[in-house]
């Protein structure tokens, strides 16, 4: 069987979902693949990975959110941002311009009901056949997991914040 674009989901309560996706970005960039990273939730700060991606000529990066949705006081605004972001994602998925698309924190958007799961599944089904897609975030819907070629669940065993109160650190968590 030949190669085809894979749909991969990184979910779970453990640390490392976005980090794993960004490892794939680095690997794909090394092969001169055309990459798009769409961040649905992040946006209240400029993380190190955004800065690093600017040095990779085949990586395009868009931040679509305004920060942590679960801290938001405006679910209507969050829905509008999610809808705009999904429109950009759908355009990219069907454009044949990218070899790898990362939909960072889309699972969180779906689990908070900011987008309709069936609409997203339909859009994913329309993607270019060669396009690989990675979706990250806690709470991946079971329908998405059933559709995916690969699902990885990050399971927390120990975390420095919970056990020692060590907060997120530059270069490690952001």
Number of domains: 1
Helix percentage: 25-40%
* Strand order in the sheet with the most strands: 3-2-4-5-1-6
Corresponding CATH superfamily: P-loop containing nucleotide triphosphate hydrolases
How many alpha or pi helices? 7
Average pLDDT confidence is 90
The main sheet comes to: 6 strands, parallel
What does this structure look like?
This protein is α/β, with parallel strands linked by helices. It has a single domain (7-155), classed as Rossmann fold, CATH 3.40.50.300. The protein is built from seven helices and six strands, in the order βαβαβαβααβαβα. The protein has helices spanning 17-30, 48-53, 75-95, 106-111, 117-125, 142-147, 160-164, and strands spanning 7-12, 35-39, 59-63, 100-104, 132-136, 150-154. It has a six-stranded parallel β-sheet with strand order 3-2-4-5-1-6, sandwiched between helices. The protein is globular, with a radius of gyration of 16 Å. The mean pLDDT is 90.
Give descriptors for this structure:
6 strands, globular, Rossmann fold, alpha/beta, 174 residues, six-stranded parallel β-sheet, 18% strand
SSE layout and pairing:
Layout: E1 7-12, H1 17-30, E2 35-39, H2 48-53, E3 59-63, H3 75-95, E4 100-104, H4 106-111, H5 117-125, E5 132-136, H6 142-147, E6 150-154, H7 160-164
Parallel strand pairs: 1-5, 1-6, 2-3, 2-4, 4-5
Short description:
With 174 residues, the protein is an alpha/beta fold.
């Amino acid at each position: 069987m030949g190669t085809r674009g894979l749909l991969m989901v990184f979910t779970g309560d453990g640390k490392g979902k976005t980090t794993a996706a960004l490892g794939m970005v680095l690997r794909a960039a090394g092969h001169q693949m055309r990459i798009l990273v769409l961040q649905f939730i992040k946006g209240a700060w400029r993380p190190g990975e955004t800065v690093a991606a600017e040095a990779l000529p085949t990586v395009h990066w868009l931040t679509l959110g305004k920060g942590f949705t679960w801290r938001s006081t405006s679910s209507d605004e969050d829905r509008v941002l999610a809808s705009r972001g999904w429109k950009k994602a759908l355009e990219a998925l069907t454009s044949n311009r990218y070899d790898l698309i990362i939909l960072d924190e889309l699972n969180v958007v779906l689990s908070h009901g900011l987008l309709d799961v069936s609409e997203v599944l339909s859009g994913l089904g329309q993607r270019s056949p060669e396009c690989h897609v990675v979706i990250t975030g806690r709470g991946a819907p079971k329908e998405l997991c059933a559709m995916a070629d690969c699902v990885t669940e990050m399971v927390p065993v120990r975390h420095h914040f919970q056990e020692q109160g060590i907060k997120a650190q530059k270069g490690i968590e952001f």
